[in-house]
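Quick one, C-alpha cells below:
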C-alpha cells in the first residue's frame, strides 16, 4: 500500500505533542510505503526512518498579513498543483490529511480516497487560534469560527474516513457536523511503559537535577500557546505558593524553546534530548492547563514514565479518566490546583496508586499491536472501497 501524508503547516513540526502523535501513527505503518507533502523548510529528521527523503514533496505556504496561515490551503494554486503531482508520481493509494487544511483541494477526478486525521474540533479552538496568532480584534472570533467550521465540515464530508485522537473528539465531530458514526473512528496513541537501566539518582546527576527534593515536572514546547500559559501559571502563581517548601520541593520545566534559568523553587531546563529519561528522573507530573487545542499527549508521556499526574479538567480533556484513580483532577483555578498538588505531595500512598493505574491505563488503551491491527484493517477497507 502507498500512502501520501499531507502536513499543512511548518510549525506543526515544532510542538512536541504533535510530533509525538504523528510519530506514533507513522510507527504503526511499517508495512506501508509512505511519501509526504509538506511546506518548504519543514524538518523531517524526526521521521527519516518512516519517510525517505526522496519521497518528500514541498509546497509554498500561503501568507496573510505576513503570517504563514494554513487554514485556506484549499484555495492555494501551488498546493493543489503539488498535491496532484505527488499523488501522480507516488501512485498513492490513499491520502492522509493531518488536520483539515487542504483536504478540500483533493480533486474528485483523481479518485484517490482520503483520511482526515482530526486533532479535535477545530471550530471549537478557533478563538484560541486567533489568540495564538496575536489577533485580538473583537468581531473576528465569531466570523473566524464560522469560516473554520465551514472548511472543517467540508473536509469531514469529503474524507472517506476520519480518525480522532480521543473518544470525546469523535463524539463532538459526529454531533457538530451530523456525521455517520461508522465514518469516524477513535485511534488511541500507541504508548509503551518506559523502562530505564539507570536509577533516578543517576538520571538526576546526568541532568544536574536536585537529588534530595521532590521534583514536580511540566514539559511542553514554548511555541504552543497552552504551554506558554501553563509555564506562566507555574512561575507566577503556583510556585510562589510553595516558596516556604523550597528546601524540599522543586518545580521543573522542560521543552523546546523554554528558557534556561534557576529562580527560587523553579528550574527551567530548556530542550531535553531524551525526554522520557528526564521525566523518569522526576517525581510528580503537573499539567496546569487552562486552554488546549486537543487531547494532551504529554499525559501519556507521564503515565509511561511512572509519574503520578495532577491536572486541571482542561488538561484531562479527551481522556476517560477517573479522578484519584488514574490522575488527580482539579478545577481550572489556582486555589484548587495548588490544593490538589499539596494533597499528592503529602500522600505517598496516593502517589503509588496513581503510578500503578497510569500503567494500567496504558496497557488497556494504548497497546501498540492492537492499535496497529485496527489501523491496518481500516486503511485496507478505505482503499478497497
Amino acid at each position: 500500500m502507498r500512502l501520501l501524508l499531507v502536513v499543512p503547516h511548518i510549525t506543526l513540526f515544532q510542538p512536541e505533542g504533535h510530533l509525538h502523535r504523528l510519530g506514533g501513527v507513522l510507527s504503526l505503518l511499517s508495512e506501508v510505503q509512505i511519501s509526504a507533502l509538506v511546506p518548504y523548510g519543514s524538518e523531517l529528521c524526526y521521521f527519516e526512518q518512516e519517510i525517505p527523503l526522496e519521497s518528500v514533496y514541498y509546497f509554498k505556504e500561503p501568507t496573510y498579513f505576513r503570517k504563514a496561515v494554513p487554514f485556506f490551503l484549499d484555495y492555494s494554486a501551488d498546493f493543489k498543483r503539488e498535491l496532484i503531482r505527488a499523488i501522480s508520481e507516488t501512485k498513492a493509494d490513499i491520502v492522509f490529511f493531518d488536520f483539515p487544511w487542504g483536504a478540500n483541494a483533493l480533486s474528485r477526478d483523481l479518485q484517490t480516497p482520503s483520511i482526515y486525521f482530526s486533532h479535535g474540533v477545530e471550530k471549537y479552538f478557533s478563538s484560541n487560534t486567533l489568540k495564538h496568532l496575536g489577533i485580538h480584534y473583537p468581531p473576528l472570533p465569531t466570523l473566524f469560527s464560522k469560516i473554520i467550521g465551514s472548511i472543517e465540515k467540508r473536509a469531514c464530508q469529503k474524507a472517506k474516513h476520519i480518525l480522532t485522537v480521543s473518544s470525546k473528539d469523535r463524539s463532538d465531530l459526529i454531533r457538530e457536523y451530523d456525521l455517520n458514526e461508522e465514518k469516524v473512528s477513535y485511534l488511541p496513541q500507541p504508548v509503551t511503559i518506559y523502562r530505564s537501566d539507570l536509577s533516578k539518582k543517576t538520571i538526576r546527576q546526568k541532568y544536574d537535577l536536585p537529588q534530595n527534593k521532590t521534583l514536580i515536572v511540566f514539559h511542553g514546547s514554548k511555541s504552543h500557546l497552552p504551554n506558554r500559559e501553563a509555564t506562566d501559571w507555574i512561575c507566577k502563581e503556583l510556585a510562589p505558593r510553595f516558596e516556604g517548601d523550597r528546601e524540599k520541593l522543586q518545580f521543573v520545566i522542560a521543552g523546546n524553546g523554554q528558557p534556561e534559568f534557576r529562580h527560587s523553587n523553579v528550574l527551567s531546563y530548556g530542550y531535553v534530548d531524551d525526554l522520557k529519561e528526564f521525566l523518569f528522573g522526576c517525581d510528580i507530573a503537573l499539567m496546569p492547563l487552562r486552554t488546549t487545542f486537543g487531547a494532551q499527549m504529554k499525559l501519556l508521556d507521564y503515565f509511561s514514565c511512572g509519574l503520578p499526574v495532577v491536572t486541571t479538567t482542561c488538561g484531562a480533556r479527551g481522556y476517560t479518566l477517573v479522578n484519584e484513580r488514574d490522575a488527580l483532577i482539579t478545577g481550572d483555578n489556582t486555589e484548587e490546583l495548588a490544593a490538589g498538588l499539596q494533597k499528592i505531595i503529602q500522600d505517598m500512598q496516593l502517589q503509588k496508586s496513581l503510578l500503578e493505574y497510569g500503567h494500567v491505563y496504558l496497557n488497556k488503551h494504548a497497546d501498540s499491536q492492537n492499535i496497529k491491527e485496527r489501523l491496518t484493517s481500516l486503511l485496507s477497507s478505505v482503499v478497497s472501497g
